[in-house]
Amino acid sequence: MTQDELKQAVARAAIDYVVDGEIIGVGTGSTANFFIDELARIKDRIKGTVASSEATASRLRGHGIPVFDLNDVTSMAVYIDGADEITASGAMIKGGGAALTREKIVASVAQKFVCIADGSKLVETLGKFPLPVEVIPMARASVMRQLALLGGQPRLRTKPGSDDAFITDNGGEIIDVVGLSITDPVALEERINQIVGVIAVGLFARAGANVCLLGTSEGVKTLTF
Ligand SMILES: O=C(CO)[C@H](O)[C@H](O)COP(=O)(O)O
To answer: Which EC class heads this enzyme's classification (predicted)?
Structure first.
């Protein structure tokens, strides 16, 4: 099976976690896009969604699925999203698609986080995938110096084919930290959150996934944490 077929299989399996009549939090990225396309088939069963990025909101609306402002939502049954890396205990690196801050905010409101990922995302130790950190632009250099002290090599994410900084939906910039071997994800998440100028770090460890649907050639495996 191709990676896309594995992503599609977990996206389809995630429909079992959609709660009828409820608001569903929807993540960002290629796996989340497959999920949106599956959700479109059962859109009449749900009240609506909250999107973790402008790209996701636009794909949801394109399918005629209602998208609510998070400020107008008091409860969310489930948040469904992909990951760049996930461990056997449900800690994740996210933010390859630059939506980490809104993903963390929407996930924090949901009762359950269901991660959907192809099998290549399961790792023993987080950190091979560069860790994304969203920052206030004026703090870029000072945050990069602090991140270097933690042992990684911080690199400013740029727009494809340009030296200009990539700008997020929130007006922030992304620093990708290469070369970290993350043995204590909760401690590192807390440490990076303390750096002044950081908006959010793409470590989802203190509040990781509750369920992971992992696409493998033997079928979809369900890990619960
Ligand atoms: O965190 C994310 C976006 O900010 C994505 O969930 C992550 O990058 C995985 O993406 P994909 O499903 O395309 O592999």
So the answer is: isomerase
- Domains of the chain by residue range: 3-123+206-224, 131-201
Q: Please report, to the nearest 10 degrees, the dihedral formed by the alpha carbons of residues 116, 189, 129, 217 taken in order.
A: -30
Q: Report, as residue numbers or ranges, the catalytic residues.
A: 103
What CATH code would you report for 131-201? 3.30.70.260
Q: What percent of the chain has pLDDT over 70?
A: 100
Phi and psi torsions of 30, nearest 5°: -70, -35
Domain 3-123+206-224: assigned CATH number: 3.40.50.1360
**Contact status, residue 211 vs residue 178, Cβ threshold 8 Å:** no
Residue identifier of the C-alpha nearest atom 6 of ligand 1: 82
| 3-class state of residue 6 by DSSP | helix
30 in ligand 1 pocket by Cβ < 6 Å?
A: yes
Atom of ligand 1 nearest to the CA of 94: 1
pLDDT in tens, 192-201: 999 999 999 9
Q: What is the pLDDT of residues 144-155, one digit of tens each?
A: 999 999 999 999
pTM of the predicted protein model: 0.95
Quickly list DSSP for 88-113: TTS-EE--TTS-HHHHHHHHHHBS-E
Which atom of ligand 1 is found nearest the CA of 81? Answer: 6
CB 59 within 8 A of CB 88: no
Q: Are 132 and 187 in contact (CB under 8 A)?
A: no
